[in-house]
């Protein structure tokens, strides 16, 4: 019998929430360049951990423009996160036990891997 497990696929560490929009649907809008590097697909479910207050919740991701450095949270989850908070974004995948591809997990640290330009 083959067993499968949920395994960490990707983690984006210590990314800063740039803006929150409390009205509307609940989703995370994130720079497409960061999503591609982390191998997270648009509409994929993610788990968010807020470093500032310990809150955690699930939502889904939509892409923002490539190179935009966008990390916006929208909808009711904005009660758990404020602009300026640092979060981790995790995604998981199911693989047959013992068959996890060697490239996973992918860990991205945006302020190191995608530095923001200085103004």
UniProtKB/TrEMBL annotation:
The UniProt record lists the keyword NAD: no
A biological-process GO annotation: pantothenate biosynthetic process
Signal peptide: none
A molecular function (GO) term: aspartate 1-decarboxylase activity
Keywords: Autocatalytic cleavage, Cytoplasm, Decarboxylase, Lyase, Pantothenate biosynthesis, Pyruvate, Schiff base, Zymogen
Protein name (Swiss-Prot/TrEMBL): L-aspartate 1-decarboxylase
Pfam families: Asp_decarbox
Species name: Mucilaginibacter gossypii
GO cellular component annotations of the record: cytosol
Domain of life, source organism: Bacteria
Keyword Lyase tagged: yes
């Amino acid at each position: 019998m083959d067993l499968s497990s949920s395994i960490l696929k990707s983690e984006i560490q210590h990314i800063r929430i740039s803006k929150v929009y409390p009205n509307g649907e609940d989703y995370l809008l994130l720079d497409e360049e960061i999503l591609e590097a982390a191998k997270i697909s648009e509409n994929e479910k993610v788990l968010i951990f807020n470093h500032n207050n310990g809150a955690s919740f699930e939502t889904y991701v939509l892409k923002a423009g490539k190179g935009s450095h966008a990390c916006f949270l929208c909808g009711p989850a904005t009660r758990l996160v404020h602009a300026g908070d640092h979060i981790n974004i995790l995604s998981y995948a199911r693989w047959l036990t013992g068959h996890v591809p060697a490239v996973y997990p992918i860990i991205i640290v945006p302020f190191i891997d995608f530095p923001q330009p200085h103004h």
